[in-house]
Design brief:
Layout: H1 3-23, H2 33-36, H3 39-42, E1 53-57, H4 63-73, E2 79-83, H5 88-97, E3 105-108, H6 114-127, E4 132-138, H7 142-152, E5 157-163, H8 171-195
Length: 211
């Protein structure tokens, strides 16, 4: 990671810490700098032409499962894992509506954080013989997700792709997306300090360089 990127990270983290605490749950309370300027730091695209599984993370049950179903229909992978508690039933419904057979859908319904997504899904992925997996999550969530999965499941090669809700293109939706991005500028350093998950990711398979 270059010095300029590190400096921009530090600036945005400090702005987030000051701005987000008193206004975290107010839709219009945050300056949109986090999604307008900060997204290139948060968003990572690592497509895989072929994988053993597609992982649809919970936390957003519209764009993510729709993207997962599209990737399945494109023949990217023969299995699809729905990971996370709370909204997995809705994600499964959307997958089934879009032609994903029930027997091709595996569920991890107990994890409630990005770290638990990786920890709880690891035995399921290993039992299924997964060696390459493509993760689907929200665009601003991709860096932290990929770094976490690479660190906690180092034996599997992970790709990742971001999914966006159409609603995020509306004024209220843009504010909601911006709030999610602002939270990432706090969660990424928190994951580094608390769990040892760094803000950089490997450039490819296990053993590759980081960026």
């Amino acid at each position: 990671m270059s010095f300029k990127k590190i400096l921009l990270w530090l600036v945005l983290v400090n702005v987030a810490a000051v701005a987000i605490l008193p206004t975290l749950w107010l839709s219009s309370g945050l300056p949109t700098v986090f999604i307008d300027w900060g997204l290139p730091l948060l968003s990572i695209e690592r497509p895989l032409a072929k994988a053993d599984a597609i992982l649809v993370l919970g936390g957003e049950s519209e764009a993510r499962p729709i993207a997962g179903a599209r990737l399945y229909q494109q023949g990217i992978a023969p299995l699809l894992f729905v990971i996370g508690e709370g909204d997995h039933a809705e994600s499964i419904r959307l997958l089934r509506e879009r032609g994903v057979p029930a027997e091709r859908i595996k569920v991890e319904p107990k994890s409630s954080s990005t770290l638990e997504n990786a920890l709880f899904s690891r035995p399921l992925l290993e039992a299924a013989g997964v060696q390459r997996a493509l993760i689907v999550t929200s665009n601003f969530h991709t860096r932290r997700v990929l770094s976490t999965f690479q660190q906690r499941i180092p034996t599997i090669e992970f790709g990742i792709t971001g999914a966006r809700r159409q609603w995020w293109d509306t004024p209220r939706g843009h504010a909601d997306e911006n709030r999610g991005a602002a939270q990432e500028f706090l969660k990424i350093p928190a994951y580094w300090l608390l769990y040892g998950v760094p803000p950089w990711v490997r450039a490819g398979p296990p053993g590759a360089l980081t960026q």
